[in-house]
Specification:
The chain has 143 residues and is mostly helical. The chain has two helices and no strands. The mean pLDDT is 92.
């Protein structure tokens, strides 16, 4: 074995030890990050449950406003058939109030929709990344 080859191999070993040190440091950082992420799982679950609750409240609000609109439509039909003592002006005022309220509900619904789409897109990306990493690890031959 020549001196140059021996020195070259020694240099490579020194570089490799440096890489090993770096990799060990990075792995310790990553493991700490994963530990913190695991600690956050209950907060994640709570956030998802809170979001689900807000969706349920929004659904109840939609149902309530459907009923209000149906009642207004019924009052209007009764007026048209002469069966209601309400004046058209009162019905028109109620309708205008409902139209303004509906515009606000429409805006709120779009916000809920946007939050839902963003949340689910990010959730699917996270789940896909975790499953791909798991599949990659399990498909590697043992060393």
């Amino acid at each position: 074995m020549s001196n140059t080859t021996h020195i070259g191999m020694h240099r490579e070993h020194v570089l490799w030890r440096g890489e090993d040190d770096l990799w060990r440091d990075e792995l310790a950082i990553w493991q700490a990050e994963i530990d913190r992420a695991i600690e956050d799982v209950p907060r994640l679950e709570k956030a998802l449950r809170d979001h689900d609750e807000s969706l349920q409240k929004h659904a109840a609000s939609v149902h309530l406003h459907e009923q209000r609109c149906a009642m207004h439509e019924h009052d209007l039909a009764n007026y048209e058939q002469g069966e209601s003592p309400q004046e058209l002006v009162k019905l028109a005022q109620t309708h205008q109030e409902e139209a303004e309220h509906r515009a606000e509900r429409r805006r709120m619904h779009e916000e809920v929709k946007q939050r839902q789409h963003v949340l689910m897109a990010k959730w699917r990306l996270l789940l896909k990344a975790l499953l791909e990493a798991e599949a990659s690890e399990s498909s590697r031959p043992p060393k």
